[in-house]
Amino acid sequence: MFSPKGPSLRELTVQALSSVERGYDLLAPKFDHTPFRTPDAVLDATADALRPLGPFGQGLDVCCGTGAGMRVLRPLCQGRITGVDFSAGMLAQARRAHPEAEWVRADVRDLRFAGDFDLAVSFGALGHFLPAERPALFAGVYRALRPGGLFAFPIGAPQPATSPWYWALLGFDLAMRVRNAVWRPPFVMYYRTCPLHAVRDDLSAAGFTVTTAPLTALGRREDGSPRYGLVLARRPGAS
């Protein structure tokens, strides 16, 4: 799962026993050599799905990490592109890799942007927010967008109980719950706390109009349904 340039088991253990912010600061120099970095195939499929909806003006990557989302924003946005994250270590890596972008350190549960962006994206971040925290996150993204602005992110289809991945993800989440019950500070990272129906409800409550689009380039499940979909949450108003 990890390349030779990735973190050692000891480094991963230290990260997992840290806070989310400190853990990602520690992991940042090797993050792009782990399976936690969003694959290029997912980024490219997202960009392809968004292209007919653009072009866009200014773009924002929410929970940008080391800046992989710039692969989506750069060709789609005609204005400035910005990444926001609360890990200084991840932002340092992003700044080195993408010096043309702007980088902001902030807690995305309390975003201070106001009507600045036409497109916001996020990749692999929802599991770092407990369900009770999603309303603040989505409200901040809503404020950051101009009327007619779009918030887009890929989301995987639920795994059937017959899939080994179903049990692997369930086991991971249970292990994290035990870890957080007995160890402080907590490290919030769950795979099963953001089902599509709950995410849609929270986005709608924040004021978004929500649709989804299949990302068929990423393959289909045995029943023929797409493995991934793209959530398209639009702030109502002039486009």
From TrEMBL:
GO biological process, alphabetically ordered: methylation
Keywords: Methyltransferase, Transferase
Keyword Methyltransferase: yes
InterPro entries: Methyltransf_25, SAM-dependent_MTases_sf
Record-annotated Methyltransferase domain positions: 60-149
One Pfam family here: Methyltransf_25
GO molecular function terms noted in the UniProt entry: methyltransferase activity
Methyltransferase listed as a keyword: yes
SUPFAM superfamilies: S-adenosyl-L-methionine-dependent methyltransferases
PANTHER family: TRANS-ACONITATE 2-METHYLTRANSFERASE (PTHR43861:SF1), TRANS-ACONITATE 2-METHYLTRANSFERASE-RELATED (PTHR43861)
Protein name per the record: Class I SAM-dependent methyltransferase
Species per Swiss-Prot/TrEMBL record: Actinomadura keratinilytica
